[in-house]
Write a structure and sequence with these properties.
mainly alpha, 3 helices, two-stranded antiparallel sheet
């Protein structure tokens, strides 16, 4: 397969390769500068700040237990919503 590098040094990745590697628009690619050929791999990014640690989760769940006391149950809310007596 061939692709043309544009004057802005952008290259269109052929559709067959994009499909095979599940590449999507906006993905970050890591280029291996030490490789004797063009080698790029998708960067798997994870928003670390949005992931709770196990300890944080345990604290959150412990603090959440019992916060719905005195509230109607799901069944009670559904009966009310449906107009059931």
């Amino acid at each position: 397969m061939k692709a043309i590098v544009t004057p802005g040094f952008l290259e269109a990745v052929p559709a067959a390769i994009r499909d095979k590697l599940h590449l999507k628009s906006g993905m970050v690619m890591d280029f291996d500068e030490t490789s004797p050929y063009l080698k790029a791999t998708p960067v798997v990014e994870q928003a670390v700040e949005s992931v709770m640690s196990e300890k944080e989760f345990e604290q959150w769940i412990t603090e959440s237990v019992g916060i719905a006391k005195g509230m109607p149950s799901t069944d009670e809310m559904m009966r009310e919503t449906r107009g059931e007596d």
